[in-house]
Each structure stands twice: as C-alpha cells, then as structure tokens.
Amino acid sequence: VGVADKHSFQTETQKILHIVAESLYTEKEVFIRELISNASDAIEKARHLQLTSQKIMDGDLPFEIKIATDDDKKTLIIQDTGVGMTKEELIKNLGRIGYSGTGDFLKNLGDNPDKASVIGQFGVGFYSCFMVGHTIKVYSRSAAVGSKGYLWESDGAGSYSISEADGVQRGTKIIIHLKPNSYEFAKKATVEAIIKKYSNFVGFPIALNGQAVNTIKALWTLNKSQVTDEEHKEFYQFISKSYDTPNYKIHFATDTPLTIRSIFYIPSQHVEKYGMGRMEPGVSLFSRKVLIQQKAKGLLPDWMRFVRGVVDSEDIPLNVSREHLQDNGLIQRISQVLVKRILKTLDDESKRDPAKFNVFMNEFAGFFKEGLITDFKWKDDISRLLRFESSHEDLEADNKNTSLEEYTKRMKPDQNQIFYITVPSREVALSSPYYEPFKNKGVEVFFLYNTLDDFVFSNIGHFGDKKIVSVESKEAEEFISKDQEKLKDTLSQSEVSDFLKWITDVCGDKVSMAKATTRNTSTPALIVDHESATFRRMMKMMDPSKQ
Ligand code: ADP
Ligand code: MG
C-alpha cells in the first residue's frame, strides 16, 4: 500500500460542494437515492462492458448493491460490483464537481438501448453524501483487467487524498462516517424506508444488512404480456399501500410526444364516501426507475385522485437536484395523453364487461361528475362513461342504469333530442304528467334523482349532435305536440280560444302564452318551457329574496 496522495478540490468545486451539502436538496435522505443511482449506473456500465464481450475483473462477481448500517460505529456503507474507478477516474469524477463520467459514457453509447437504464447526468449527486457524513471513504477498483484498488478519502472541506489499497474487489464501496445530526442513517429501519421510497425499482438487487429489499419489479418497464395478474396485484399493493385487488389496470407505453412508461390502477373502493376527507393524488413520477415526485400533483387532474400508479419518463428534463421538472408545460402535455388513455380504457372496459363497469361507476361516479363540471376539456369523454337510470323497459330489475350512447341507439327515428326528468324517485317519475306523453309515445327518458345530476346534464348539453333537454322544456313540448291528433270536437274553436284567453287574463304576467294540447290524458293543465324544478330550487337557494 502506497503513501496517500493529497489533492485539493478545484476552487469551484469547493464552493459548489458547500452549496450541494447545504442547500441543493430539500431532504437529506436523498443522498441514499444518489449513491444507489451511481451504484446502479456503475453496474450497468460493467454489464455493458461484459456484453460487448470484453473481459472484466472479478468476472464471477454477481451484479448487486449491498448496503450496511452500523449503529455502533455510526456508519453507512454502500457497495456495488460495478465498473469501479481507476486512480485517474477517481480524480476526474470525484475531484471535480459538475463532471459526470456517466454523462461521458452516455455520449459514447450513441443510440444503444442500454441508455435508458443510466441515471446520472449532472455530476453533483455524489457530493450529497457530505450532507450527512463528516468523512467519506471510497474504495474502488476498476473493472479493467489488471487494475489496482484505491482508497479516496475526504472530509468535504478543501482536499481529498488517494492511496493504493489492498483487498478491494471490483466496483466501489463507499463508507460514510455520519455527522452527529445524521445518526438516523445508521439505523436499518430508516434506511430501508428510504430505499423503498426512492430506489425500490432500480434494476439490480439491493441487499440491506444481508436482506433483499427491492423484490418488486418495475412492472411498467416490461411488456404488457410479460406481467401476470399476481404481479400486478403485488405491485399495486406495494405502491398504494393497500390490501385490496385493483379493479382495472391500465398498462400504457408511448414514444410520442415523449417516451412514457406507465401503469395505472383503479381500486375497487374509495374512502371519500365515508367522509374521511379528500384523497391525495395517487400517482408517482419516476425517471429511469428512480422516484422524482411521490404522489405527484398535476400528473393527473385532481378529480382523478382515486387512480393509483406510476409514470416513468426517461427524457423529462429534471433540475439538478432531480426533485423538480424544468418544464411545467411538458407535464401538462404528458397529463393530457395519460388522461385520454385512462378514459378510453374505461370506455372499452364498459363495453367488455358492462355489469362490472356498472358496479365500478356506482362507486366512483362522484369523481367523474366532479371532473365533468370542473375540467371542461374531458366533458365528452366523461359523459360517455356516466350512467343514469332511464325509463327503458328492458333494463335489468336491479340495474336501471344506461349510458347516453345506448340511449341514442334506441332513439325514435324522428327524435333529435335526449330527454330527462328530475324527480325524487322512480315512482314519482313514472306517474309524472311531464313523463306521461313520452311514455305514451314510447320515447325513453332519463330519470335523474338529485340536483347534482340535473346540473351535470345541463353541463353536458349535447351528446354528439343530440341536444339534451328537460321534459319540461319548450323543445320537449314541440317534440310531443308535433304529431298530435287534431283536437277532438268536444269544444268548439271559439270555446277553446275563450278558455285560453280567460287563463291568460287570470294568470297575468305569470304566463306568456297558453295553448290547447292533447299531450296529456290524465292531467288537465301543465306548465312547460320553464327552468326545471330543480334549477328553480337551486336559484331560490342562492337568492334568499325569492324564498
Ligand atoms: P452523475 O451520477 O450525475 O454523473 P455524480 O456526482 O453522482 O454525478 O457522480 C460523478 C461521477 O462519479 C459519475 O458520473 C461516475 O463517473 C462516478 N461515480 C460515482 N459513483 C460511482 C460508483 N459507485 N462507481 C463508479 N463510478 C462512480
Ligand atoms: Mg449520480
């Protein structure tokens, strides 16, 4: 073993090192993410070297990452069997901040598909260990056959030293001597939780104090057909920290406008209905299998907060701390693609298994209605998914729900509108004088039982080219009276007009017009062409003077 060489960090490195250690990262714990990412990159490079048929040092060593905590010595050790570093590489890569040996490696890779597995790019991650360590020792031995082992050591102040070291195996072993305010990172449970949070899906096995940690695969990186239901269930339970079985899964990959690999799950139940407060968003953003934002806001719209899942995009531009994206417009574009896909899949599912879908929609309808009202751009897609009761007689006894699309398929040849009535219950609807002429004519009517649905229908407005109108509207009246039989001659023309004149006189400006009709047979008179009853109730609620 030779004498230690002393080197000073470059001046800029000294300054930046201070920034990295003090303020670049919001959470100290991310140094673990950074060191594991480096270890994974190093192994990826060793694998690449071996694949391109070059002999590597210690060729039998398995590709793995070993982490060890020591609560007595207050140390944390992270060791990999990757490419390691020669003395020159130690100086170049660890002595100079902002220099990324990994970045160079990527440039040389060209279009090789292995590129997507490499994480590093900024050349600052390594220094994050000075946030928690007062002394860092890096033992490293390059994979180049015949290379020697070295120890790089620094207190992160002004200098580092390098000396030859015996007994070093291929790869890199980093020993962090923790500062007193960071002793928590010598505890196994703490470190395990952090590994699971950020680095659970890196592509190589991680063992913590001899035990495997990352046993769950990054399913989103696999082909759909490679993943079993059992694996989906396990993965879903891991990311959503729950014990149920997902109702629907959406495994989606695209390369435009960006490379996105994603998996979404729709749980079988949600907790908001128990009044347990608003759910948090359930989709996390990853880049190259490393967590960027847990439960990311903005990835899916807020009303989709019941969806659980993972989105990974290898080419999203990250800031240096890898905690934020540089481009917010980009996230919005990704979001649009994802929402479209989720809604499309649900529409397909609704046709594949309508009964299952109906159960799902009964449970989650509130979210979709919220989406329809608050997020106008998805109105059409959402309105296809919603289900409401209707008067159609062939619906099942225990499920009278139907879709707007099915309704339009059953419409009469001369019918151009979709009709609905807002009533307290099915019984009231069936005996309502407004519904009566539709029933007689065999025209289907949606039965809405609450103010929200009435509001949702007014928001939908149109379905395709069909206008949605209340049975109390003028359009409904025109539709019903257009093929009316001639008035039976029980009353003469002049008697009818006298009677209508009398009504308008008595009602004054409360009605604008009165007319005779054969639309109803069991009700003498009806008010039509006014806001729906529910709408009037809502207006009253908002304007106390009208109460
Ligand atoms: P980045 O990972 O963004 O390149 P880092 O500061 O994390 O930046 O690391 C700087 C460089 O040090 C890496 O690019 C890599 O060349 C080298 N390096 C860091 N950790 C290891 C390791 N465990 N094995 C081999 N090389 C490493
Ligand atoms: Mg790195």
Overall description:
There is one protein chain. The chain is an alpha+beta fold. The chain has helices at residues 11-24, 30-51, 87-94, 101-109, 188-198, 229-240, 328-352, 354-374, 379-385, 404-409, 426-430, 436-441, 451-460, 474-481, 493-507, 533-542; strands at 5-8, 65-70, 75-80, 133-141, 149-154, 159-164, 171-178, 206-208, 211-212, 248-254, 260-266, 282-287, 290-293, 308-312, 388-390, 401-402, 417-422, 446-448, 462-463, 466-470. A hairpin with a 2-residue loop joins strand 8 and strand 9. Helix 7 packs parallel to helix 9 (379-385). The longest helix is centred in the middle third of the chain and has 25 residues, at 328-352. The protein is elongated. The model has no long low-confidence stretch (mean pLDDT 89). The chain binds adenosine-5'-diphosphate and magnesium ion. The site of magnesium ion has 6 residues, from helix 2.
Detail the topology: elements first, then pairings.
Layout: E1 5-8, H1 11-24, H2 30-51, E2 65-70, E3 75-80, H3 87-94, H4 101-109, E4 133-141, E5 149-154, E6 159-164, E7 171-178, H5 188-198, E8 206-208, E9 211-212, H6 229-240, E10 248-254, E11 260-266, E12 282-287, E13 290-293, E14 308-312, H7 328-352, H8 354-374, H9 379-385, E15 388-390, E16 401-402, H10 404-409, E17 417-422, H11 426-430, H12 436-441, E18 446-448, H13 451-460, E19 462-463, E20 466-470, H14 474-481, H15 493-507, H16 533-542
Parallel strand pairs: 2-8, 12-14, 17-18, 17-20
Antiparallel strand pairs: 1-6, 2-3, 3-7, 4-5, 4-7, 5-6, 8-9, 10-11, 11-14, 12-13, 15-16, 15-18, 19-20
The chain binds adenosine-5'-diphosphate and magnesium ion (MG).
Adenosine-5'-diphosphate (ADP) binds next to helix 2, helix 3 and helix 4.
